[in-house]
Each structure stands twice: as C-alpha cells, then as structure tokens.
Amino acid sequence: MTLDSSKASGGIVPVLLLQLFAASSGFAVPARRGHYDLLLTSGYRREWIALMHWWTSIAPGIATWLMLAAVEVVASRGLRTTLLASGTCAAMTLVSTLPWALTTRLPRFSGGIGWLLVLATSTTVVSVAPAIPATTDSFDPATLVRSAWSFLIYPPTFVGHSLSPEQIAAVAPALTLAVAAMVLACRWIVRASVPLEAAQ
Amino acid sequence: MIPLAISVRDLAVRYGRRLVFHNVSFDIAAGQSLGVIGPNGSGKTTLLRLLAGCLTPAAGDIRIGGLPPREALRRTGVAYFAGDATLPGSVRACHWGNLGNGDSVTPDRRPIRALSRGTRQLLGLRTVLGRHPLGLIVLDEPWEALDRDAGLWLSTMLETKRDRGSAVVLSSHRLHDLAGISDCYLFLLPHEARLMRAHEIAPTGSVTAAQLADVFDKLRGGAASFRAVS
After folding, report:
1. Which of A80, A183, B41, B66 is most buried (most C-beta within 10 Å)?
2. C-alpha A72: how far from chain center
C-alpha cells in the first residue's frame, strides 16, 4: 500500500459531508424526550450545555480531519499541508457550525438533508467550482457573490487553497452567517422551555 | 447543603392555547416532602419540570431557597427524574450510572434499552439520588415499575434524604407509597389546586392511602375513579 499525499484534499470531501450530518445533531427533540434532564438539572450554565452539545457533535469529525492532516504531513515529509490550508479550515468551520445551529430545533440530520437539497437544486443554477482563482488582478463583485454562494452551498469549494484576500472575502459572509446562527442557537438553548413530549 | 424552602405563587402554564393549570400556590419548608396527586393530564409532570427549572411558567413565580429554579440549581444539588422513558436507550447502563456523582451505580455494560423497565427506573433513580449534596429532590412517578424491594429502598432513601434537610417533591398514582412519606399533599385538579397538610387529612396518626383517596374524591366532586387505581 502506498500513500499519495497529492490526493489528500480529495479525501477530505467525504469527511466534510459526513461532518455536515454529524453536526446536524438536533437538541430540541432529545431534550423533549427527557434525555438531557440530568444535564439540564446538573447546575451547569445552559451556555456550557449548548457548547458541550455542539462539541460532542463535531468532535469525531474534527479528530478525523486532524488525523488525515497528520497523515498527509507525514506522507509528504512536511512538503504538503493542504488539509491544514486556510480554505480547508474555513470549510471545516462552516460544516461544523452552521448545520448544528440550524438543526438545534429540528430533528437529527435535518440540517444535513436540507443542505444537500439546497446543493442539489442550486447546482443547476450556480457552478460549485471555485470561481475566484488564487490570485486575481481585478476585483469583480459578481464573481465574489457567486464564489460566496458556492462556498455556502458547497463548503469544499476552497479545500486545499491558501485563501487569497479575494477568497477570504468570498468565505467571510458564510462564516459570519455561521457565527450568527451559532449565537442564536445558543441563546435559544439558554432560554428554552423544555416540556416532556408525553406531558404536552 | 443549603436547606431549601419552596415557594410557588399564582403559577400558570400553557401549552399553546391549552391552559394546563393556573393559580397554583403553595409553600414547602426545608426538610419537608410534598406529594402531588391528580388525574392524568392535570399537570403533575409539568409542575415538577417547573420546579426542576426545565420549564418556564406562563405566569407566576417559583422561588427555591429564595432563588428562581435555574439559579437554585447552581447553588445546590437537585435530583430530578421523570421516569425510565426519559433515559437514552443507546447509552450503556454503566456509563449513565457514572453521571450522577462519578461513582459507579452499576457494572452492567448493556445499552439502557436492553434493560427491563424496572431496572431502567432503578438506574435512573440511583443515578440522580447519588448526587451530593442534594437540596431538592423532584421525582415523577418514582415507584413506577419497581419491585417491592426496590420500592422499599426508594422510600427509605427518600425519608433519609428528607430527614437530612432535602426538600422532596413527588408525584405518584400509588397513594399508599405517597401516604407513607409526604408531609403535605397538593391535589391538582383541572380547575383547582389545593394544598393540605398531613394533620388536616389525618388529625390523629399518619395519613393512609384510603384517606387520600377520600379527600381526592371529595375535592373532585365525588367521583371515585381514583380509588380504583390506588
């Protein structure tokens, strides 16, 4: 068996898609079944409970990503670090945050399923190939918007890229949306009233 | 452990448009136990979840040791268990048992869903009651599915915790179990909630299940359906 480090960035795509589903863990449904009662009455702050729930959802995917990155670095003797490139980090951040936040009040995996539906319908309209090359001489707002949309619906768009300033501008809106969604999801968990399904 | 008194004022809860109960008020001193009695759907589980800080009332105020329930949770240990159906079936019994205070409750490595109902109930109870210190114990139908030995263990455990200063709130349809342990009783009816001290029900001696059933029947207008299950 041989290790081809040049194909590492392709290997991360399934991990990103699986992370999309792993992060879509859903909080409200198991909470309404009483599964989190022990945690909710433990005295921990709800903010911590929300963050613990998020972390336990994404930790396996993060560990797999870091393990693949370590294999790539070792196999290429330190010459290739595409799995730790800023584009890959941005993609992993997006698939680890936005699906969790969007699925907080929904059933498990619904965020991942919804995302795939949006991707499947959007690819007929917008190309998911990286629209902005690594270096550009001119700034084109239309290309920027298309790239931002591409990254939002298909996070592996910039996998393996060290992001240029234009590419950073393309990933920034999706990451900002993810952070805002995380904040809203945490606030919802903090304030949530959790009745038992059977008691309603 | 901080001894906790519970004060509930004009509590009301709604699920959507449905009013579960309203104008529920009572006070429980530290080291006392309250038995909540009511027909199915009267809001017993909802009331207990309010006390445990899992729910927010539509109106009214709850103070536990002078604090709102969620703040009280941070100050002192609270044991809340709403029955074996609330345990996640995929988790191993031994792992769940460690979540109380870190001590092993059971060496059983089977998933919770593979356990019998009574064993699941006992696992949940032992896990939450293993917390230390415990200022407040809130248990929903705790004797459900337990065999005689486990039921006796639970009653003894609750009496011990109460005598050490824990406030205890229990709901159960098993009136003979409640009668033996509660200092006061909250009768939760569709349009009325009535708190009665043990000496008001049984001026001499301890309260019996038959006396509780009589009071309950009188409060709900003479219907005797509750006696049939007690």
Report:
1. A80
2. 21
CA distance B230 to B210: 8
Strands B59-64 and B192-197: unpaired
Task: Quick: pLDDT tens for A129-143.
Answer: 556 655 555 667 888
What is the domain count for chain A?
1
Whether B225 is in a domain gets the answer no
Pairing mode, strands B78-81 and B136-140: parallel
What tokens appear for B185 in the block? 């009783």
Check CB contact under 8 Å for A45 and B99: no
**pLDDT for the residue numbered A11:** 81
Interface test with A, best of B86, B120, B126, B171 (most A CBs within 10 A): B86
Asked if B99's CB is within 8 angstroms of A199's CB, the reply is no
Q: If you measure CA to CA, which chain A residue comes closest to B97?
A: A38
Q: Which domain holds residue A61?
A: 8-199
Is A140 a domain residue? yes
Query: Could you say which DSSP state residue B76 is in?
Result: S
Partner-chain residue, chosen from B15, B53, B128, that has the shortest CB–CB distance to A195: B15
Cα–Cα distance for residue pair B210/B178, rounded to 1 Å: 12
Distances (CA, A) of A71 to A79, A82, B117: 12, 11, 47
Q: Which letter does DSSP use for residue A22 in this model? A: H
- Has residue A198 got a pLDDT over 90? no
pTM of the model: 0.85
Give me the helices (H) in B130-197, please: 148-163, 175-181
Taking the C-alpha atoms of B63, B66, B70 and B76 in order, what is their torsion angle to the nearest 10 degrees?
-120
Domain harbouring B116, CATH code: 3.40.50.300
Smallest Cα–Cα separation from A54: which of A106, A121, A100?
A100
